[in-house]
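Shift notes (night). Ran Phytanoyl-CoA dioxygenase domain-containing protein 1 while the centrifuge was going.
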Amino acid sequence: MNGLSGDGNIARQLEMKQPQVVQSMYIFKQPNIGDEVCEHVDSTYLLMEPTNKLLGVWIAIDEATLENGCLWFIPGSHKNNELNYRFIRSNSTDPNEPLMIYIGEKPVYDAEKYIPVPVPRGSLVLINGLVVHKSEKNLSNLSRHAYTFHIADKYESVWSPLNWPQETPTYKFPDLYE
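Came back to this:
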């Protein structure tokens, strides 16, 4: 999977100037027990200024259907999303306090506006960092695995120091063009 998320072709086609992979994960949505992913906006967790510099890349390892928990989107929701709800580092040194907290008011989205996006195995879905999306539980006898990663275009932008993933002196986000 490292080679897949390290390929800069998508970023080049989208004219990103300094793309870096800031987060990746393999999603195991197992048959009959794979849980839902609640509605969210990726930039809630991975904020940049300006906010239009984050792109999610979601790859269907298995076919994604209505029954096994395909993605659902609110079309156009990225166009006027003010992003007042955030998941940030708490900076607490108290071991009894959480390391991460939500701040702001959680938005309420109109359930009627969602559309399902079933896709065949091997499909690649690009997700604007401000678009509202979710997935339902896997109610089928088939798995629905996916590999996803997020690309941040660091050109003329600022990565929030309150985001949960951060570069360190010994770890830098992989640059797709180097």
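Residues 9-13 form the longest helix (5 residues). The two ends are 17 Å apart (CA to CA).
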